[in-house]
Amino acid sequence: MGAPAAQQGDGRGEEQPSTVRVTLIASVAALGGFLFGFDTAVINGAVGALERVFTAHTVAVGLSVSSALLGAAAGAVLAGRLADRYGRTRTMLVTSLAFVASAAGSGAAVSPWDFSAWRALGGAAIGAASVVAPAYIAEVAPAHLRGRLGSLQQLAIVLGIFVALLGDYAIAASAGSASSPFWLGVSAWRWMFWSAIPPALLYGLGALLIPESPRYLAARGRATEALAVLQGLLGRAASEKLLDIQKTLSSERRPRLADLRGRSGLLRIVWIGIGLSAFQQLVGINVIFYYSSVLWQTVGFSERSSLAITVITGITNIVTTFVAIATVDRVGRRPLLIAGSIGMALTLGAMAAVFGAAGEDAAGNPVLTGAAGPVALLSANLYVFCFGASWGPVTWVLLGEMFENRIRALALSIAAGAQWLANFLVTATFPALKVAGLGIAYGLYTAAAAASLVFVVAFIPETKGKELEEM
Predict the structure, then answer these.
(1) Is 101 exposed, middle or buried (0-12, 13-18, 19+ CB in 10 A)?
(2) C-alpha 288 chain-centroid distance
(3) What residues contact 91, with CB distance under 8 A and at least 6 apart?
(4) Mean pLDDT in runs of 10 for the chain (471 residues)?
(5) Is 364 exposed, middle or buried (0-12, 13-18, 19+ CB in 10 A)?
(6) Nearest to 376 by CA among 392, 398, 353
(7) Does domain 8-470 have CATH number 1.20.1250.20?
């Protein structure tokens, strides 16, 4: 009964021999996503301390926070080349070492400039992880599991964000504040960054234990090794799958940028990937995770309460990602993105209205009175829910599967690079927008959410249930 089911294309004949093993393998790759989330969010609890310790101007603070994102754009673009030349797992190993070095250096920084440099190195690792993990997971996952396993990347990211925010809260609460001495008399904010070292080392160990991508091995002419990996994943269907892979790899040469060119400069599908990546960030999601503790302090919450709110937001993000995992292979990619865009536009619009109507204190900070504070909190968490159930995980699923085998890593790296540039734009401009008015800032993110709806309806194809070789 197993073989016929596999031939019919529903994947059930593959499920018993592959599900547990491929889930474990994909989970190891997704550790890169965990570090991605952890490293980008850990700055949240340290922003205020950095302002005080380095007596930094608003622009310097914005650069310190966003320097990792510039590094991420570079790392994302380079990662595709590295993954195609040296393999997915070796690139993961190098990425883990960069995470370790960045965490150690950021925690030991003595000025905003060397801090920004170490954060940029960590950003390069984040960018590489954002490319390699979804590509690897898509390449080892059977079609009937690919949406759920691809969503592991986003689940790992939001878990990393949550653990970083929870760690920031615990460290700051134990020390009294992020600027106060903690273990060994060292400032608490430094320990926030050093806490990334253990998971970074675990990621490197995991990269040594998982098999190389069978599609990478086939592309390099290592068919015997590719077959061995596929047998561990698919059982009896391995030989047929290897033939399908080899048919799509029509050239033995390594992919080049020329392979991405079309009549409009780039292939249409690459432009769609770039747009998808950019909109995921232009809706302002990372303002919540990078600046929320400072934001809630600005409107009257204490440092401890603000950090506690960010932890609650992190929990919301995790719960909603499970919603996406449960529905992405049943409902499809397009419906989730459409629903998410509508929900984000409404909730961001509510936040723009609340902050736009807020009064100001003597220092020029917004003051939320009466029901405005609870409305802002509720809207922020509903916004995170809408993002976490749609654009957060579905973007990574689509980026991992929408490109054909020969150009996947290279095209994904270009799209991910665009994502990090958009992330940098949003993150670096928020401190100035906060001064201009939070109503203006959230109004811009509302407009981006509305535009993302138009983009999905016009350009995003449905990929549910398709084999990678059909793309």
Answers:
(1) middle
(2) 14
(3) 79, 82, 83, 128, 132
(4) 38 52 86 86 74 63 69 82 88 94 90 84 89 85 76 83 85 82 85 93 93 87 86 79 75 57 75 93 81 64 72 80 83 92 96 82 66 81 90 86 78 84 82 80 94 95 68 56
(5) exposed
(6) 353
(7) yes
